[in-house]
Specification:
353 residues; Jelly Rolls; six-stranded mixed β-sheet; HBAP1 protein; JmjC_dom; alpha+beta; Cupin_8; 13 strands
Length: 353
């Protein structure tokens, strides 16, 4: 019965959705999703969302350990930040909103979010919307997976549960990861070619909007054979809406802007922005739109657990002398999103030659 098409995405129904059921205190660690943008419908109970714009990435201390495909975690425990260890978090700008039943939240591309259930039972439905930018993001994810699996498996293959998030069943082989990288690069280059030819064609016929179903599936859900890896990359025959086009889409008459909160309010959690009666909670900051996650998201964590990234600090990094560097210290720098982005650009330039 969910019609995501009402929000400007023709042909998208409730079939391309994920169901979330949680209890009071359950939370999803602060993270950003590598792919697409996100629409979230609250069905029962209330959830509080803490959102941070992409420009705050350095203030949130991104990490890829524990590793989960397409999820970049924050080392900061948003509910109880340690400002001595993470002083730059003071510079972040939180957008806090309480999502009530019947309301829909648009999470733009690459926006960080920490989500907590504040009622005894919460039920939500979401859909990740694919974007053209996902092709480059898949290249970056393939590079990250290859490096993480190679280095951590070499260190101690028996400790896969320590550095893999629970949603990642096992570390894939180097051969499989290399196949995935090649498929992702090929899909990106094909998308670029199609985009160039499509721009010339659209001048006379108008651009067509993609209506195919969302296809972000984790590698383990579709298998790891070379031919099945093609399911992870979408053809770029139909261009998806660009940022400026999304701004023009008439989402509805009841838009409620999620304004930034003062740092004291966002950190201490004293006051949350209660949304009014509206169909969409919408934040429009410049060109920060987008995000597909056809991936199965992590289960909501219970309130008696620390966030996954916080666990990384206490469980994953060996307690050695202050001057000793661990494998995780090295890996955290190596797979930093800025480094991975540069490596992806170099690889794509090599393929274009």
């Amino acid at each position: 019965d969910v019609r995501w098409s009402d929000f400007g995405f023709p042909g998208r129904s409730g079939k391309e959705s994920t169901l979330w059921i949680g209890s009071e205190g359950a939370n999803t660690p602060c993270h950003l999703d590598s792919y697409g943008c996100n629409l979230v419908l609250q069905v029962q109970g209330r959830k509080r969302w803490h959102l941070f714009p992409p420009g705050d990435t350095s203030f949130l201390y991104p990490t890829r350990i524990p590793y989960e495909e397409s999820s970049i975690f924050s080392k900061v425990n948003i509910a109880n930040p340690d400002l001595k260890r993470f002083p730059e978090f003071r510079n972040s700008t939180a957008h806090i909103v309480t999502l009530s039943p019947g309301q829909v939240l648009l999470v733009p591309r690459h926006w960080w979010h920490y989500v907590e259930s504040i009622d005894p039972v919460t039920v939500s439905i979401n859909s990740w919307i694919e974007l053209d930018a996902d092709h480059e993001a898949r290249v970056e994810e393939a590079i990250t997976r290859m490096l993480v699996c190679a280095i951590k498996s070499a260190e101690n293959p028996s400790d896969g549960h320590v550095w893999l998030n629970p949603t990642e069943v096992e570390a894939t082989s180097h051969e499989t990861n290399l196949q995935y990288l090649n498929k992702a690069v090929s899909a990106y280059l094909k998308c670029q070619e199609t985009s160039v030819s499509g721009q010339a064609h659209s001048s006379s016929t108008g651009a067509q909007q993609r209506t195919n179903t969302s296809c972000k599936r984790k590698r383990r859900e579709v298998g790891c054979e070379p031919e099945s890896c093609t399911l992870l990359t979408q053809e770029c025959d139909f261009p998806t809406p660009k940022a400026e086009e999304l701004q023009k889409i008439p989402f509805g008459p009841h838009l409620i802007q999620v304004l930034p909160q003062s740092h004291k309010t966002s950190v201490m959690g004293a006051v949350a922005v209660e949304s009014g009666s509206g169909d969409l909670l919408h934040e429009n900051e410049g060109d920060h739109f987008g995000k597909l996650h056809c991936k199965r998201k992590r289960l909501l964590m219970s309130n008696d657990c620390e966030t996954a990234a916080h666990q990384m600090d206490s469980d994953c990094i060996p307690c050695t002398s202050p001057t000793a560097l661990s494998t995780n210290d090295f890996l955290d720098c190596l797979v930093n999103p800025r480094v991975i982005s540069l490596v992806a650009q170099l690889l794509l330039e090599r393929m274009k030659v």
